[in-house]
Design a protein that fits this description.
Blueprint (H helix, E strand, L loop, with lengths): L3 E5 L18 H14 L3 E2 L13 H13 L3 E6 L13 H10 L2 E3 L2 E3 L3 E6 L11 E4 L4 E4 L6 H4 L9 E5 L2 E5 L6 E4 H4 L3 H13 L11
Parallel strand pairs: 1-2, 1-3, 3-6, 6-11
Antiparallel strand pairs: 4-5, 7-8, 9-10
Amino acid sequence: MGKKIFVSYKYADNYVRALPGIYNTTVRDYVDILQNKIDLGDHIYKGEDDGEDLSSLADSTIGSKLGDKIFDSTVTIVFISRAMKDNTPENDQWIPWEVSYSLREQSREGKVSKTNAVLAVVLPDHFNSYEYFLQYNPECNSTTYMTNNLFTILRENMFNQKNPDTRPCNGNTIYSGYFSYIYSVKWDDFIGSIDKYINIALDIWRNRDNYNLRKSV
């Protein structure tokens, strides 16, 4: 059965791998690819459309419009991109707010929404690299997550399983299994197997009591 999917992303971040035929590729161009695939399948896209102009609206109005869409969704996909953060305080940026809203239970007109499943899709940067966030460690056959590059609410919902499966390696702790509530996947793996990774996020969501969730920005 298809799911209602909200996508959170930094619209104008152009520190991403160029897409064929698109001058000055931005994260929004990757969202368009995902939206087109969702529209062709069973899932329902709940984010704003590319032609939907919110620029003239007050922040409170935009928050209400996007809040309605998040309330009616079951899965939130966060696009991780190299320049997703700027120097503005986190509580004044949209991605942390959208993730927080996705994780909190909300009441509207007598209806209550549950915590969303959340999936992080990591985009390749303008050097065609994922290493700004994911770095492979061959000695330990593991991946290092550069979580300090993320917003706090994303960082603290990773490596937050209450009883993780771990092993030592070269003085480091290596985690196995679904150790993060927000599971991370590379774009190149995700876009060809969307249902697979949405189902992973949903499996984690079904076991959300096993995680220490941070729901505030």
